[in-house]
Amino acid sequence: MKEINNKTFVKTQSLRYRAYSYRSITNKLLTYCSIIFTLISLVPLVLVLLYVLVKGSSAISLDILFLEPQPPGGDFSSAGGIGNAIVGTVIVTSIACLFSIPIGVGTGIYLAEYSNNLNVFSRFIRFGTNVLAGVPSIIAGVFIYAIIVVTKVLFGSTFSALAGAMALSILMLPIIIKTTDEGLKLVPDDLRRGALGIGASKKTTILEITLPAARKNILTGILLSIARASGETAPLIFTALFSYYHISSINDIFFEISSLSVLIYNFALEPYAAQNQLAWAASCVLLIMILFINIIAKMISRTTYKL
What we know:
The protein is mainly α. It has eleven helices and two strands; from the N terminus they run ββααααααααααα. A two-stranded antiparallel ribbon has the order 1-2. It is globular, with a radius of gyration of 26 Å.
């Protein structure tokens, strides 16, 4: 305590850094603890990636990437490949994008541009989106199984690529809606006011100003949703099932179709070493696909766009 001009001031602690003070030692301990726990959390991820890449890459060849799997029981040289599963995964995910991207981006635009937090309907949509994001993927598969597969309401087909795509689109929707909503919210209101001030309509402002400004976040969300959908297994078991053959025409989307995730599930349970090797190869290919999509999403998120 010291007194200046009849006023009493509390003696403050010196701001000079002292290496062996209680605060400095505690700060260092907590920093080292956080680094150690971060490294521990990364160990399972690194081990899984390395183990799958090592086991799977040893089985990959050009023939495996293009051929169809053969009936189980033979040796690895006659086991065929996973080409139909790679094509099936791309087809089912692409159809799911056709369902989920327009609906998801449109819903995100409505939430960010045409509603507010006081609107009951928009609050209900946001609540439903948060709930849907936490729903287990198998629930989406069972839902489409009951609505589409059992009733045969989709052109009389049961298990099909379309049914699988619908199940995956349910899982993609909350990611796209939330990233679009949050991305549009980050656009400064000054841009909207400026466009409206010079006579632009609401539609023109959204299409020409806010959407281009938020496209980085929207594209990142879409890619992350594609990465999640590509690796899902449970919804496809209930909807798309599995096929040993390549598709030969557009009509094949109304029938069972193969996918990498279901192939891994089926062949990993086979008692034959050749099919187990194909499952490892499919795991490696699927892992590389998901890593590639995530890297692209990361690169887009760091890219700066100009209006």
